Amino acid sequence: MAINASSDNRGQWGSKFGFIMAAAGSAVGLGNIWRFPYITGENGGGAFVLVYLACVILIGVPLLFTEMGFGRFTKKSTIGAFKDTGANPFFMGLGAILAVLVSFFVLSYYGVIAGWTIGYIGKSISGSTESFADFAANPTMTIPLMAAFTLVTIFIVNKGISGGIEKAAKVLMPVLFILIAVVAIRSLTLEGAMKGVDFYMNPDFSKITGNTILAALGQAFFSMSIGWGIMVTYGSYLPKSANIVSSGVWVGFMDAGVALLAGFMIFPAVFAYGLSPEAGPTLVFQVLPEIFSQMPGGAAIGAFFFLLLTVAALTSSISMLEVPASYFMDEKKWSRKKSAWVVGTALFIVGIPSALSSGGAAFFSEMEVTIFGGTYTGFMDILDYFFGTFFIVIVALVTCIYVAWKMPIDNIVSEIDQGSKWTPGTLASNAFVFFIRFVCPVVILLVLLNMMGIFGIFAGGG
Which residue ranges does UniProt annotate as crossing the membrane (predicted)? Predict the structure, then answer.
């Protein structure tokens, strides 16, 4: 589907495929490849997978429709979208401004983690046995790697929507799937790998508890770029002819697909080497390198694995940088070049404390915050709790309520109908309105209450 250039100089997607790749790339990040497998391991394997898929279909995809439709209806990035539809200070603050801050501050430390993945490509090839703790605590490694990753992100965003973000996504997303397939095939050919497949794919319904459902809701929620202002901003670059329904379904499908494929990379290898599938956040940087070091051809497979993590991080970082950059382009009338470089430079400076918070500097590594019964240690973990977890849920809830109840919901339904033949008043559109008005706000509120320790089982964010 060819798309003509925008008349308002904001830029537009060059094709439906390009938009889907970019939006899916935003949703597909480290959370799919790193977090999904260990959350699955902690929640009983196959049973969790089924609940997770249900959450993506019933909650994630309708919220994607909402944010994409909101962006295209206003043709503005997040702050402009709320402002132009008459939002009061409450919705502006907790819906619009907070969304921009979420994308900015998450990207400030996301670049640090992405830098680690770049470093581990080199560690895999060289056969280095340096521990993760020593590696992460070395600022002469972590800060330059973060700078390199940030520069690549700035360069792509600087090239524009069609010429930069879309062009990069069209290359990076297929490469990501190929890399996942390579590592998964090698993992599946290991002796004893089928034990991992059995754990992963055979659901034990006795394992499904309230904890399982809330963990699945949280994973679906955090992995789909909902509540960041990203899908509102990306939706604002969509032409009226674009099919939001099919695009949203494809984004949800690809996001869940990468997460599911990640399980086929990790569980067969973990079981083949007799390690625990419940290793938690240490799985990627401590457990898997140990597995790769014992595996025939492990150096190459390890390098492939960390390369795909870097690619996944880049497809997400591009979208996170676009959110604050688009604010300056829309509201301050800055050029794209100025916006990308100013925001990117600020990101690097703000990211330095995170780079120093894994042992690089005692002040940033040892600071603590206790909230809702949980204690978070280190500057990066504290930032991740507030901006990478808690505030995302706030933004998603406020945006959902605003679109469903404060704006005329018919505006969004009509917007989604354009290009999708989804006539308002039909069963499909009525079901969408019901979900966005009643089901999604209640579910988001449950996730929020769970994070606040009401149910006592919160397992962390995205």
Answer: 17-34, 46-70, 90-116, 136-157, 169-188, 208-237, 249-275, 295-319, 340-365, 385-405, 426-459
Domain that holds residue 341: 16-451
- Residue at 459 is within a domain: no
* Residue type at position 447: V
Any idea which of 79-93, 116-130, 146-160, 210-224 has the lowest mean pLDDT? 210-224
Instruction: Give Cα 31 to chain centroid, integer Å.
Output: 6
CA 52, CA 348: separation in Å to the nearest integer? 34
Cα angle: 311, vertex 143, 460; to 5 degrees: 60
Give the Cα separation of 28 and 20 in Å (integer): 12
Number of domains into which the chain is organized: 1
Q: Are 83 and 74 in contact (CB under 8 A)?
A: no
Calpha distance 255→261 (Å, rounded): 10
* Backbone Cα Rg of the chain: 21
Q: Quote the crossing angle between the two packed helices 244-272 and 46-55, to the nearest 10°.
A: 170
Q: Rounded to an integer, what distance in angstroms lies between the CA atom of residue 374 and that of residue 376?
A: 7
Integer Cα distance of 394 and 447 in angstroms = 10
The confidence score (pLDDT) of residue 224 equals 85
- 281 within a domain of the structure (yes/no): yes
Mean pLDDT of 193-217: 85
Is 67 contained in some domain?
yes
In a domain, 203, yes or no: yes
Mean pLDDT of 24-50: 84
- Measure the CA–CA gap between 304 and 312, rounded to whole angstroms: 12
CATH of the domain at 432: 1.20.1740
* Pair 269, 44: CB distance under 8 Å: no
Q: Is 224 helix (H, G, I), strand (E, B) or coil?
A: coil
The pair of three-digit structure tokens given for residue 54, joined into one six-digit string: 């249900």
Beta partners for 358?
none
Instruction: Mention every residue, 6+ apart, whose C-beta is less than 8 A from residue 222.
Output: 31, 35, 389, 392, 461, 462
- The 10s digit of each residue's pLDDT in 283-339 is 778 778 888 888 888 888 889 889 988 999 999 999 999 999 999 999 999 999 999
Work out the angle at residue 317's Cα, subtended by the Cα atoms of residues 316 and 322, and round it to the nearest 5 degrees: 105
